[in-house]
Predict the 3D structure of the following.
Amino acid sequence: MIKKRKLVLPAEERQLALVFHNLSPRVSDANDYGTMIGYTVFNSLNNFHLITSSQEERIFKEVKRTYDHFDVLLKKIKDSGDYLPGLCELQNKTESDLDRFSSLRIQPITEIPKQGFEGSWIFNGILDTLFNRGGNPLDRLRRYGIELDRTVQSRGLIKGNRACLERDYRDLYSCFVREKGDRRE
Amino acid sequence: MPVSKPQVQPMYHNVIMPFGDVYALGGPDVFKELAKKDKDKGKRGTKNLIVLSMEMVSKMMEPQKHMGQLGLGGVDALEEIIGSEYESFDENALVYHVSSGLDVAVYLEDDNPINVPLTKSLADRIKAKCGGINKVITTNPSLTIRYQIQGFNVERPGFLLIDSSIVEKGLINGSNSLLLKLIENKGVVSLEVARDLLKLNQETGENLYQNQFIRFTGNQGHVYARVKGDLNEINGRVQEEVNNPRVELIGRDGVLDKMFRIGEDNPRKEILGYTPWDDEQYLAAQYCILDPKMQFAGISGGASSGKTLLGYVLSAFQILKHHDKGVREKRGVGEKGRLYDQLILLKSTDTMGGDSRDIGFLPGDMLEKLLPHLAPFSDAHAESADLRRALPFSNMFMPPRIKRDDDFEKEKEREPIKIDGSYLPESLPPVELTTSGYFRGRSFKRKLLVSDEFQNFTPYEAKTIMERVGNGSKLIAMGDPNQFDNPRCSRDINGFTFAIKTTLPHPLSSLVKLTHSYRTEIAEIATRTRVYSR
């Protein structure tokens, strides 16, 4: 019996470098561009929930969810012909979520047990960074978005599906999460 | 090799070994930063201990390149140590009681090889005496790897480095809630309310700075506000603390019309042919460069962001006589009718031929040697139709009423040069060029100091430049921490981020980052591509 081969997108079609390559020409303002990336990453991982014992599966699902949100955003921008409505929508959603989180006590990621964790590790790291390390959360997301774009654009495309997901996860984590002792602004 | 943290006996809270490069950068400040603080948790010891080997002490005395860093900080640090009380610590070792939270132990080792700051035998002695070294601090990647292999916890001296993202702080994102409040309150909200609405956590540090811009995004475009306060003067000196700190909408209800407003003159669309290409350029021009109250204007921007054109043309405009009705009325229409007497272009010599930090021995005066390196300013001069028509760029460095050497046929004095209805200085050359090697001892009064590529100055040079800014003067520093050419600078150690960090909280300083890049697609590809060889 011939087994039907599962259709897998080539690696080059799903990775942050390509997402940014498609998104950047459509956003004329670099600050808005950084803001858009920051808010999209935040929103994509909010409410992420996965029961799995595999660390790798969690990482891959988190990154894929981020890709999905960027795809939706890109489609919206293409359809409307302008990025501002999409950005305003993102801004409203992010702001209301941040309002909600700001009234809660955010547990530092170092205190969260990895065993049995079902949310997004990056998202918890972002919350920890935004609310326990100080600063203006909305502006931090903009700055981290700019940083992510710079990191991804300068390293370029990655070959191989697994390598893409792992590298994108690493870059998302390093740009958005400031652990204790991290002296970056 | 197992990587494990050594056990510390309760004698000291932490045992730390910063290498010589850390002292070269931070001098005695290293002791302040590494002393045990009250907030440091744990019951171990009441002090931290810093360990020094005699080899490192000798190196610290040499004011030359030391583990990648150049500086005299090591000498100052040693002077601080020897001014403290001391006692015997171990065999061939002394401990100096530097502060209530810090001791410094200096070990004499006979067999210490050159350029090895920490030998195994020294590490063993420290382990036997006080449990071992908790962390080693260095900026040197080679030493980092070497000691990580040996199982040490190696850190970078974060307390001495300035994150390059500090340049992003000139303009921050605002929240819808703050915008609504501003609209409700006729465009003004107190700083305290603004902080709450931006969810700033005061306990953890980040604040709103004076003159910081806040941007709100709407469906139709952007709305801008600015942090302001009434200047608080004591004996004629403006204090860092302001009265009535607040956030105010700028422009027309927050929308920028990109019209230049200079003193009481009528708003104008362009200055010497320059019109701002985007919002950030307008903010930099109107609120940083052209604002006579500002003593420091930091303009950050990548390649092709237009910062040189903006900085040069608007600065040239400010040395024209009586361009501002307010200034005119205050100072009269004579020579004093201008805001600044002269434009001083500061250049880092490093970009022009290397490591020596001087301008070399080739024939010619400083201007002749440096003119080719002023091409960015020369291009900016040519881009301004008004300046280009009035005089060539090289004549900006000549006294207008004194005949030039090569101009001997024209015996009579030249007429004062009129640009945009005003006159260039009549007694001084409009522009003076100077380099970092010639600052010491100078003081600039009523001068407009403009420096491009400020990231190529070291923090020490930047400090020297900033110290020279005399009464009535202003420093416009333009730079990009990602484009350093000086081998002594890095992304987190350079004069530009140093100047920004030092001046950011002060109400007489302002900062804008130009984010738009006006270049071709090919140039964008080149920018994204990493090249390491030089």
